[in-house]
Amino acid sequence: MTEHTTAQQPATDDAAWDPAHPPRQDGRTVVVTGATAGIGYFAAEQLAAAGAEVVLASRSAARLAGARDAILARVPGAQVRTVVLELGSLRAVDEAAAELAALPRLDGVFLNGGAMSMDPRARTSDGHPLLLGTHVLGHVRLLAGILPALTATAVEHGGEGRVVHASTGFVARFRPGFDDPARVPRLGLVAYARAKAVTEVLAFELDRRLRAASHPVASVVTHPGVGVDARTPHRPGIRDGSTPYRRNPYTPWAQGKDAAAWPGVRALTDPAVRGGEYVAPREGMCGVPVRVPTPARTARPGPDAARRVWERVEALAGVELRV
Q: Measured between alpha carbons, how far is 186 from 120 in angstroms, rounded to an integer?
């Protein structure tokens, strides 16, 4: 999906960040949802190159195998696992969460996956609106299942777990409402932005609750800018003649999906990034990932508004996200 937002001023200490050389991640285990294509794939590849054990999570076992092969071709000797994760089925999410929670170690998760259908009538297998179900409800249910494992790893190894949420610049552009998460706007793009606005509210509220509980896990929000196929590097089965090509009018000002993965990778790996922060491209549509001002509308909607969204999403997802 292409993203668009306006440029914002970076924090003063972001100039030293080199997306080609993130901190080494040897010994750490990180999960990436939606890891078989686009931003998710390239985030996983970059994390593997930095030494992390990467768990690819997506709904197709065949595509997971292809993504794993593509990473191993670029990063010989990389540690790559795969877990089938269907975000549109709460029962399937529970199965994947149990598998992930049983890993020997779990240091971070990049909640990147989700359906991109713009049909407002599309539904998950549980009957929820597809965009809300896969981008929000599935990830909340997954997080409820793996948060104890993230906490246990942080305690055992003396570090900090990371939960990184993928948002979009369309939240700032369209300013969709989020009071009733289940309401589906007529325009698909606005519905997508609405799901991501809910994601942002939950992500910032999650970090507040983690801090209040002195939890060793941080919640960080990112958006990728504009990632286009025309600027994305070739990868067999990921970005080649066998994969669909999408034209994009922003191509002259955009970046490849490898660069669009940088904000998520930085949010997972940079020890200077703190919970409750927002990481995005320096130029808005493209550029190195920097920390930008958190959007007041979703980061500080008021305690009652955040609580209402949280409780409504818990009810829709059929789970209590305990912090």
A: 6
- Residue 132: in which H helix or E strand, if any? helix 130-132
Going by the DSSP 8-state scheme, the letter that residue 239 receives in this structure is: B
Residue 100, φ and ψ in degrees, nearest 5: -70, -40
> Could you tell me the strand order of the sheet in which 161-166 lies?
80-84, 53-58, 29-33, 108-111, 161-166, 217-222, 278-281, 289-292
What pLDDT, in 10s, does the model give residues 54-103?
999 999 999 999 999 999 999 999 999 999 999 999 999 999 999 999 99
Contacts of 157 (CB under 8 A, 6+ apart): 105, 107
Q: At what angle do helices 303-317 and 138-157 cross, to 10 degrees?
A: 110
In 3D, which of 276, 271, 272, 275 has the Cα closest to residue 299? 276
Distances (CA, A) of 241 to 97, 229, 255: 34, 11, 19
Which position has the higher pLDDT, 233 or 248?
233
Q: What is the token pair recorded at 304?
A: 């009652």
Q: Where are the domains of the chain?
A: 29-317
CA angle 295, 300, 306 (to 5 degrees): 120
Question: What ranges make up the beta strands (E) of 102-155?
Answer: 108-111
Residue at 40: amino acid letter = G
Cα 202–chain centre separation? 13
Specify the CATH architecture of the domain 29-317: 3-Layer(aba) Sandwich (3.40)
What letter represents residue 196's amino acid?
Answer: K
Phi, psi of 132 (to 5 degrees): -65, -45
Q: Which of 232, 173, 243, 169 is nearest to 39 (CA)?
A: 232
